[in-house]
């Protein structure tokens, strides 16, 4: 009896963070379903998919301290991979004449398609990562951004494979809140396992002090590459899920706007912790929904108020700037969910943020 | 003239300086010595306003300068020649020098200062219009000192003037520094790795190790070097002193 | 041969636009280590300054109808104002923050300006007919040259010469060059940070305004994202030229202009659509092979 109890406590102690995060998302889905709002299901599903995306970005950016502006490129790659797998073969034969036979002639179920998305995202990230992990801080961020432009440009123009600027249609739109919750949960678990793995811990150490980490024999490049690959796979999978949610793909979906929103979510939630990534998505989704409702118009005490179209985006941008100025560590400040179980040993993760130092060389503030 | 009291500087969790105090009187030459990573350059950068202190005070002629911007401190008569010299390589020698002098309003006083610097550094006059990036290490060091002089300082902080230079060049640099001290009554605070050189040129010596001030004394009282070495290396490594000290 | 010369002129004209924009981005990067994503939105803002704020579908020209002696300074002042306001509200509170933080902040700023323009002017593109005379063409022997290309190249050259004189001959110019190379050392010598940063934003804003006018004269239409593509290319131009090098930014602009036009002209037709992808892949290549840019060895080198 007490054995089972202590085993349960031990498990909860180890798995507290992912368990609490999944439980929180579950609660959101349950409450939203209970409220039963018509558009709510769609909003919740989109939010959960964004949880996967932002967690994917976090796996690299949070652990390595290098901000990436290119991850939506992996999402694009993943989404189109799922599209290739899941579209109606008849349509593919008509429109996507450049596809190889195993894609052109068959139709794969959603889980297989999403696996393909993850694989392609991971491979693309690993290849591209070989280039960018040679670079430091700002140069790496620029390169990730260039990557986004490249993916967008290629996918928008590669007509025989992506249907170009017209849309890829006919992907079964089978993903709803519960399916996306499942993927969000998987992403949380994968990201958490990575973060507490030897790779994750060493990478975080190198983020906090690159010089010390390098001198203790840590191969930072390899660690960054691994993180980049894992994170590309997660974001790629998110793209696959998103394709099965939208049912129709255009390259415009995966460009600057989505990049901005997901980065805003990560930074506002707190780039230094998994909880920050999840909280950021929840919080920003809430803000967006409120602003969207205000744009549609609300009646308060008989007076109708409607914000002009675009106010939602302005509000989000202002919010992100305010957070960067006044709380650069984000809402969570680099902390995970506070655990009711005393931490075993020194397992507590330290506060993280976009580091002020580049490769451990301190950048002294210019006042 | 310059007074530093209880200075503490932290980079994140790392404490670079812990309760450091020193003072430099008018006309004095003071050398700060200590091993690599002792915090000497941090101390200099902090005095000059490039790094902010978490605790402590810095005053120049009784006026608080800690927490003021680097440009304000430069304008109040304290000039820093940083470690590695940091000359502007894309600018010409002349432009580097003029940069130090725009605080002076009129052309004549700028020209007067230029002439004076040229008199001390004839080599710079020869290379006046060439790109500063093409100078040799020794010339760059002289340019850095000349440029600092152009600001018309009352006190000059020179961070590791001998860094990366051949001993003969270092002698030349010190010769010039000493002539500036004698002719212009310039107050000097020099950060020097070699205790021998410090003992030769300074009126007083400070030894900084691991972010703390270990020793202060008049150069003439420390000439045998024993006490300096002990402070420099700490007590345990006394046996290595023989090899490491030159 | 004729087509080649025609292409060269096109490349010079496009390169001019990139060079103007790259210089604006490079100046700010040099002093603040800030990669200003919002520079493209400064350009957009300058273009929209030509018309009366309204969400009506048909644009009502106000400033755009003035004579050029009045029009150009007005647009410059408008863009300089938003550049200085951006610094004051967003970047000044972030002095001392890391470059990626600054980059993220400018991303947010870009998003705000772009959507604020949408709130004020509505989402639909508007057409503006600025300086129709520039739409004419000049015939030089067998060459047909759009007047606009000539004006673009001439204006750019004039601005470059002007900037060079300011940067080389004036005290404040020397201070800016020094600050762009090593801001902290410049301050140790008494260079005032506020002055240099403020001036950088003023010049950057003015350059964005000129780019905006040339762009409107060329396209005749206004959209909320009109400045973005130029800024993206200018952005890679600064990388190619070596971030922090002002001359490099200008040269980089012309190099990218040439690459884009020549890709467009000489790539096999199947690959032409991927022009932009090639251009940006080139940037990654430059970053990896020569992080300091093609022109100068300083800046982004990995220092572990």
From TrEMBL, chain A:
Transmembrane portions of the chain: 12-36, 42-61, 106-128, 135-155, 175-194, 225-246, 258-288
Q: Which domain of life is it from?
A: Bacteria
Q: Where is the composition biased (Basic and acidic residues)?
A: 353-367
Look up and give the membrane topology term.
Multi-pass membrane protein
- Cellular component per GO, a single term: plasma membrane
CDD domains named in the record: TM_PBP1_LivM_like
Chief location category: membrane
* Signal sequence region: none
Concerning InterPro entries, the annotation shows: ABC_transp_permease (IPR001851), LivM-like (IPR043428)
Q: Which UniProt key words apply to this protein?
A: Cell membrane, Membrane, Transmembrane, Transmembrane helix
Q: Where in the cell is it found?
A: Cell membrane
Keyword Ribonucleoprotein carried by entry: no
GO MF annotation: an example = branched-chain amino acid transmembrane transporter activity
**Per UniProt, what is one Pfam family of this protein?**
BPD_transp_2
Q: Where is this region: Disordered?
A: 346-367
Q: Which protein are we looking at?
A: Amino acid/amide ABC transporter membrane protein 2 (HAAT family)
From TrEMBL, chain B:
Query: What name has this protein been given in UniProt?
Result: Amino acid/amide ABC transporter ATP-binding protein 2 (HAAT family)
Please state which protein family the record places this protein in. Answer: Belongs to the ABC transporter superfamily.
| A biological-process GO annotation | L-amino acid transport
Q: Which part of the chain is the ABC transporter domain?
A: 2-235
CDD domains per record: ABC_TM1139_LivF_branched
PANTHER family annotated for this entry? HIGH-AFFINITY BRANCHED-CHAIN AMINO ACID TRANSPORT ATP-BINDING PROTEIN LIVF (PTHR43820:SF4)
Q: Does the keyword ATP-binding apply?
A: yes
TrEMBL record, chain C:
Q: Where does the chain cross the membrane?
A: 12-35, 42-64, 70-90, 102-123, 143-167, 195-218, 230-261, 273-289
GO cellular component terms, A-Z: plasma membrane
Please give, as recorded in its UniProt entry, the membrane topology of this protein. Answer: Multi-pass membrane protein
CDD domains per the UniProt record, alphabetical: TM_PBP1_LivH_like
Compartments, as annotated in UniProt: Cell membrane
* Entry-linked InterPro entries: ABC_transp_permease, BCAA_transport_permease
Any one GO BP annotation for this protein = amino acid transport
Mind telling me which Pfam families this protein's record contains? BPD_transp_2
Q: What is its main location?
A: membrane
Keywords (alphabetical) are: Amino-acid transport, Cell membrane, Membrane, Transmembrane, Transmembrane helix, Transport
Q: Which GO molecular function annotation, any one, does this entry have?
A: transmembrane transporter activity
Tell me which family the UniProt entry assigns to this protein.
Answer: Belongs to the binding-protein-dependent transport system permease family. LivHM subfamily.
**Family annotation (PANTHER family):** AMINO ACID ABC TRANSPORTER PERMEASE PROTEIN, BRANCHED-CHAIN AMINO ACID TRANSPORT SYSTEM PERMEASE PROTEIN LIVH
> What is the protein's name according to its record?
Amino acid/amide ABC transporter membrane protein 1 (HAAT family)
Native organism: Roseiarcus fermentans
Q: Source taxonomy lineage?
A: Bacteria, Pseudomonadati, Pseudomonadota, Alphaproteobacteria, Hyphomicrobiales
């Amino acid at each position: 009896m007490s054995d089972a109890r202590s085993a349960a406590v031990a498990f909860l102690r180890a798995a507290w963070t992912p368990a609490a995060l999944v439980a929180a998302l579950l609660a959101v889905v349950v409450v939203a379903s209970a409220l039963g709002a018509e558009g709510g299901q769609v909003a919740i599903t989109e939010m959960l998919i964004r949880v996967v995306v932002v967690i994917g970005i976090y796996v690299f950016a949070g652990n390595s301290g290098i901000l990436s502006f290119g991850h939506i490129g992996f999402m694009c790659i993943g989404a189109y991979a799922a599209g290739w797998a899941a579209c109606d073969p008849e349509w593919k034969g008509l429109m996507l004449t450049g596809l190889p036979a195993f894609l052109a002639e068959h139709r794969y179920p959603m889980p297989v398609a999403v696996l393909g998305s993850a694989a392609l995202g991971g491979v693309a990230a690993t290849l591209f990562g070989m280039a960018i992990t040679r670079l430091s801080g700002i140069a790496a961020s620029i390169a990730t951004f260039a990557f986004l432009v490249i993916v967008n440009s290629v996918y928008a123009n590669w007509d025989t494979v992506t249907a170009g600027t017209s849309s890829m249609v006919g992907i079964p739109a089978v993903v709803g809140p519960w399916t996306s919750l499942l993927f969000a949960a998987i992403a949380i678990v994968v990201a958490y396992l990575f973060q507490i793995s030897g790779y994750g811990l060493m990478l975080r150490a190198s983020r906090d002090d690159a010089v010390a980490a390098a001198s203790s024999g840590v191969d930072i490049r390899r660690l960054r590459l691994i993180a980049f690959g894992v994170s590309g796979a997660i974001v790629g999978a998110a793209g696959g899920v998103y394709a099965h949610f939208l049912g129709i793909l255009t390259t415009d979906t995966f460009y600057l706007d989505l990049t901005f929103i997901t980065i805003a979510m990560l930074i506002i939630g707190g780039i230094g912790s998994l909880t920050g990534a999840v909280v950021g998505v929840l919080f920003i989704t809430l803000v967006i929904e409120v602003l969207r409702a205000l744009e549609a118009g609300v009646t308060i005490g008989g007076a109708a108020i409607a914000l002009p179209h675009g106010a939602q985006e302005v509000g989000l941008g202002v919010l992100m700037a305010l957070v960067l100025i006044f709380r650069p560590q984000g809402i969570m400040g680099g902390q995970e969910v506070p655990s009711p179980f005393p931490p075993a040993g020194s397992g507590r993760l330290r506060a993280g943020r976009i580091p002020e130092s580049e490769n451990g060389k301190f950048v002294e503030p210019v006042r | 003239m310059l007074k530093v009291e209880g200075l503490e500087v932290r980079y994140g969790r790392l404490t670079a300086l812990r309760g450091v105090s020193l003072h430099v009187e008018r006309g004095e030459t003071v050398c700060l010595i200590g091993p690599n990573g002792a915090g000497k350059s941090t101390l200099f950068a902090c005095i000059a306003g490039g790094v902010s202190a978490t605790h402590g005070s810095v005053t120049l002629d009784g006026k608080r300068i800690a927490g003021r911007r680097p440009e304000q401190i430069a304008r109040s008569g304290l000039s820093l020649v940083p470690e590695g010299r940091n000359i502007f390589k894309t600018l010409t020698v002349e432009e580097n020098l003029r940069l130090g002098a725009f605080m002076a309003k009129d052309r004549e006083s700028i020209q007067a200062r230029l002439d004076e610097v040229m008199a001390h550094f004839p080599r710079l006059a020869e290379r006046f219009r060439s790109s500063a990036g093409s100078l040799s290490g020794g010339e760059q060091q002289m340019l850095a000192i000349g440029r600092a002089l152009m600001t018309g300082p009352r006190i000059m902080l020179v961070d590791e003037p001998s860094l990366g230079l051949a001993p003969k060049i270092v002698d030349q640099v010190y010769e010039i520094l000493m002539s500036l001290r004698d002719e212009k009554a310039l107050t000097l605070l020099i950060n020097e790795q070699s205790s021998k050189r410090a003992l030769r040129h300074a009126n007083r010596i400070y030894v900084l190790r691991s972010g703390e001030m270990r020793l202060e004394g008049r150069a003439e009282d420390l000439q045998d070097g024993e006490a300096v070495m002990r402070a420099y290396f700490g007590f345990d490594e006394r046996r290595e002193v023989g090899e490491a000290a030159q | 041969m004729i087509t080649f010369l025609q292409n060269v002129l096109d490349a010079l004209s496009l390169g001019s636009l990139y060079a103007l924009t790259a210089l604006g981005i490079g100046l700010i990067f040099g002093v603040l280590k800030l990669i200003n994503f919002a520079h493209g939105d400064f350009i957009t803002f300058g273009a929209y300054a030509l018309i009366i704020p309204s969400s009506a579908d048909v644009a009502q020209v106000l400033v755009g109808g003035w004579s050029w002696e009045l029009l150009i300074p007005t647009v410059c002042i408008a863009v300089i104002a938003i550049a200085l306001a951006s610094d004051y509200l967003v970047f000044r509170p972030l002095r001392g923050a890391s470059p990626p933080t600054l980059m993220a902040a400018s991303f947010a700023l870009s998003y705000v300006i772009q959507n604020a323009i949408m709130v004020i002017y509505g989402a639909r593109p508007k057409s503006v007919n600025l300086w129709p005379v520039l739409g004419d063409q000049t015939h030089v022997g067998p060459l047909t040259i759009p007047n606009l290309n000539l004006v673009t190249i001439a204006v750019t050259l004039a601005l470059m010469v002007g900037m060079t004189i300011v940067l080389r001959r004036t005290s404040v110019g020397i201070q800016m060059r020094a600050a762009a190379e090593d801001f902290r050392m410049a301050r140790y010598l008494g260079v005032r940070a506020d002055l240099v940063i403020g001036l950088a934003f003023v010049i950057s804003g003015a350059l964005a305004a000129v780019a905006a006018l040339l762009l409107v004269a060329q396209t005749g239409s206004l959209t909320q994202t009109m400045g973005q593509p130029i800024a993206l290319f200018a952005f890679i131009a600064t990388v190619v030229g070596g971030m922090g090098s002002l001359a490099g930014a200008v040269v980089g602009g012309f190099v990218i202009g040439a690459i884009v036009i020549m890709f467009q002209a000489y790539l096999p037709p199947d690959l032409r659509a991927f022009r932009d992808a090639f251009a940006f892949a080139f940037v990654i290549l430059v970053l990896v092979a020569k992080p300091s840019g093609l022109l100068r060895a300083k800046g982004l080198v990995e220092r572990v």
